[in-house]
Design goal:
- This protein has 192 residues and is mostly helical.
- The protein has a single domain, classed as Hypothetical protein af1432 (Orthogonal Bundle), CATH 1.10.3210.
- It is built from 11 helices and no strands.
- Helix 2 packs across helix 8.
- The termini are far apart.
- The model has no long low-confidence stretch (mean pLDDT 95).
């Protein structure tokens, strides 16, 4: 199968498109981390790694133009991505990661996987940053799950969205381990 065939866009073209629309390096790193977790999730659930990875990579492509209006986040992305031939499945999952803002409902494995995967990146990064070396390699799953229960830690990270992992038959511990492992593989690329 040709790379990007099912996704409608190659990984290289998706990254280039992302960087055309996002200038904030931390946001780009968040998208790359989300991609890594989504690829691991695809492998776990025997889904297309390229499709799921591209969804993770592009999920916040419209963030810099919609951050003042969360009711447009995902909808603007849909317009950008459909015009570039990105698969409708990816576009729907991206819209549904902001279901609350768009008046939609997450219902598929893909929807829930993208939502919990992109959200946990914030908790993992925040956890790594309290370590002396500020590296993911030193972060233990238990440390992340402990901080998950501390409401004032990484306050902006939605615990409810992370817990959507349970809607796809993953325990929190299993999901944290998978996510940490995926992010550890790309730690250098995201500066952690």
């Amino acid at each position: 199968m040709t790379e990007g065939l099912l996704a409608g866009i190659s990984r290289d073209d998706a990254l280039e498109l992302l960087k055309m629309h996002l200038k904030n390096e931390k946001l780009i790193s968040h998208c790359i981390a989300s991609e890594a977790i989504m690829r691991a999730m695809a492998n776990k659930f025997d889904k297309d790694e390229e499709v799921w990875g591209i969804a993770g990579l592009l999920h916040d492509i419209d963030y810099e133009i919609t951050n003042e209006d969360p009711g447009r986040h995902g909808a603007e992305a849909a317009g950008i991505l459909l015009s570039k031939g990105v698969s409708k499945d990816i576009v729907e999952a991206i819209k549904n990661h902001n279901a609350e803002g768009l008046g939609l409902e997450r219902s598929t494995l893909f929807d829930h996987a993208l939502t919990c995967s992109e959200t946990i990146t914030g908790l993992i990064v925040a956890t790594a940053l309290v370590y002396p070396d500020k590296k993911i390699a030193g972060v233990k799953p238990k440390s992340v799950t402990k901080r998950m229960k501390t409401r004032h830690f990484a306050r902006a990270v939605s615990r409810e969205r992370i817990l959507e992992c349970e809607k796809i038959d993953m325990t929190l511990n299993e999901f944290v381990e998978l996510s940490l492992g995926a992010m550890a593989k790309i730690a250098e690329e995201i500066g952690l």
